[in-house]
Amino acid sequence: MALTLSLVSLLAxxxxxxxxxxxxxxxxxxxxxxxxxxxxxxxxxVQALQPGMSRQQVREILGTPLVTSVFHADxxxxxxxxxxxxxxxxxxxxxxxxxxxxxxxxxxDEMPSESEFVATLGKPTGKLKVPNLQASEEQLAxxxxxxxxxxxxxxxxxxxxxxxxxxxxxN
Length: 171
What we know:
The protein is of the alpha+beta class. The chain has a domain of 89 residues: Beta-lactamase Inhibitory Protein, Chain:B, domain 1 (2-Layer Sandwich), CATH 3.30.1450. 35% of the residues lie in helices and 21% in strands. It is built from 7 helices and 5 strands. A hairpin with a 6-residue loop joins strand 2 and strand 3. It is extended. It starts with a helix and ends in a 12-residue tail after the last helix. Part of the outer membrane protein assembly complex, which is involved in assembly and insertion of beta-barrel proteins into the outer membrane. Keywords: Cell outer membrane, Membrane, Signal. Part of the Bam complex. Its main location: membrane.
């Protein structure tokens, strides 16, 4: 009997949640972390590549490749992925090919310019308030003047006598 009563009271408690509470709970979405993986390679960087460049020169322009394979030593793969909440994920791939130690060609997705990429990141929502970083004379007068650090070091060195320590091991 007690089991039946407790079961009925639990069921009654579940049904007492109102429709507005359910709607409010369904509109709450968890925060999703922005995930950035790989190297962003811009159109300007790809255009800076010239056939015959060394691997080191290519690395200086594009950065360290995300994928290098023992089985494909003549190819470096640059992959870039960014996932942000409320924005479609961006994926870009670039393959760089070498013959020996010299750059031959690059193949992959059409890379955006740096300004185009920045424009796709979007603007922050809400109004940002930029604080005033300039202190007035009145605000500065509230704080005591700082002593010069070099003078403090000289005064400290002259105030303490030199110490002489005995040797660590007895002779």
